[in-house]
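Before anything else, study the sequence and fold tokens given here and see whether the fold suits the sequence. Record follows:
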Amino acid sequence: MNQAPRILSIAGSDSSGGAGIQADIKTITLLGGYAMTAITAITAQNTKGVTDVTTLSAQMVAAQIDACVSDIGVDAVKIGMLGSAEIAGVVADRLDGLGVPVIFDPVMVSTAGSVLADAATIAAFERLMGLACLTTPNFDELAALGGDAALAAKGIAYIAKGGDAPGEVVEDRLVLPGQEPVVWTAPRVDTRHTHGTGCTLSSAIATFLGQGAPLVEAIEDARDFVRAALLAAPGFGEGHGPMGHHAVR
């Protein structure tokens, strides 16, 4: 049997298809995984921003996770937008002891600047970071979580993404407890079509881990996929446009 790794994405829906659940499904599928979803929120958004959000109940999110895990099974999990502190809590309950790699993208603000997590939700992130084998904050998210010192003190494994930091060179820095950081650098891709980069990176890492790759190798391959998708952006929208997942082979 040609069994694909079973990847569960727990995240919000992006109506414009560039980020969230939609970006995750594209990424997981193109990389050879079997995509499953537990949708946390429905958003009305496009390349210019988010205009409306409806958060699902924590019970519905838990039911989606239970339905997938109890029948299909799961080899890795990606967590994105959560929508509420209650959802963060039930997600942690369901994943605790599951025994598969968990990648946590601590989504707080959309690429276009819309707030997607309140203070109570961000406070609930700590338990999920402890459960995850990797947390993937961008420049601003890392600061909101207390910075390098705070995460290091808690023994959190994380990759500090540099795509939102200033400069012509993007630096991504992997920090694992008790180890020297691993640093990747690359010239910045000059484009406004960056919607969904964080979602894509985290779901790609989860997919590669589900296939059995070591963490560093999974990150390297995921970074390559994101860069290729950035370079293949179709140019849609007037704001922060989507990447070209479809064109990456």
Notes: The chain has a mean pLDDT of 93. The CA atoms of residues 155 and 178 lie 9 Å apart. The two ends are 23 Å apart (CA to CA). The beta strands are 6-14, 34-46, 49-55, 76-79, 102-104, 134-135, 158-160, 169-175, 182-187.
